Structure formats: C-alpha cells, structure tokens
Amino acid sequence: MDKIRTRSCVTSFFMLAALALCPVAPTAGAAEADAKQRPSVSFPHEMHFDVAEDCLSCHHDYQDGENVLDEDLLMETEPEETMVLNSMDREELSAVSCVSCHGDDAKTGPMDAFHNQCISCHEAEKAGPVMCGECHVRP
C-alpha cells in the first residue's frame, strides 16, 4: 500500500511540475498587443499626391494584370492632408480607401498591402523610408 501511495505522490508531483513548466496559452488580447507593437503610420497623402505621376500610381484595382480603377472615383472624396493608416473608422471610409479592399479578411491584408505598395515604390524611386522605424515612428 505504501508503494502505491509513494508512486502516486511521485507521479502527482511530476505532473504538477510539468504543468507549472508549460507555457501559458496567450489570451485573446495578446495577439492584438503583438500586432500593435509598432505605432500606426502617419501617411502624408498631400506630399505623395504632389510627387506621384497620377492617383493610379498608388490606388489600384487590378483585373487581368491591368489597373482598371476609375480615377473619377478617387476625385469623389477629399482626403486629409495627413492620414493615420489602419486606424480609420471603417464606416467612414470611401470605396477607394486601402482597407475597403485590403481589410482584415482580404487575400492581401492591410499590413501586407501597405508594406508591398509603399516599400516597393520607395525602393524603385530611391526615395522615402524603407525601414520599419522610419514609418512607424515611436513617440
């Protein structure tokens, strides 16, 4: 009987020790905290408007490899001089805002869309920031 009790106590001890050493599963808010590790980007829309060839240099709707976005749609809205990307109220967004197509459920989400579009243009033009902290400026 003592052997059984001893074996049971030792087994219980090791099970509790193993449980104590296991990492705790992250809470639902932990993933959001990780995603918001860097601050949102302040996007100087007016400055980009001044240096881009046209609005379709950035805004796009590709079908069969061709940008078919009607530039007149872009003229229906008056963008702010500087916008904070990915923190806008989605109910107030126009049909041509980035997250209207690159929302959370899209094939290419907002973060990948911004990174692909912005960084590839900055590298091609040899102008503008390409490093994380140059766009995601900490206060």
UniProtKB/TrEMBL annotation:
Residues holding heme c 1: 45, 48, 55, 58-60, 121-122, 132, 135
Keywords: Electron transport, Heme, Iron, Metal-binding, Signal, Transport
InterPro entries, sorted: Cyt_c_III, Cyt_c_III_dom, Multihaem_cyt_sf
Binding locations of heme c 3: 118
Domain of life: Bacteria
CDD domains in the cross-refs: Cytochrom_C3 (cd08168)
Record bears the keyword Cytoplasm: no
All residue ranges annotated as the Class III cytochrome C domain in the record: 30-108
Keyword Transport found: yes
Single Gene Ontology MF annotation: heme binding
Cofactor comment text: Binds 4 heme c groups covalently per monomer.
SUPFAM superfamilies named in the record: Multiheme cytochromes (SSF48695)
Cofactor: heme c
One Pfam family linked to the record: Cytochrom_CIII
Signal peptide: 1-30
Positions contributing to heme c 4 binding: 136
Name of the molecule in the record: Cytochrome c7
Species this protein is from: Desulfoluna spongiiphila
Phylogenetic classification of the source organism: Bacteria, Pseudomonadati, Thermodesulfobacteriota, Desulfobacteria, Desulfobacterales
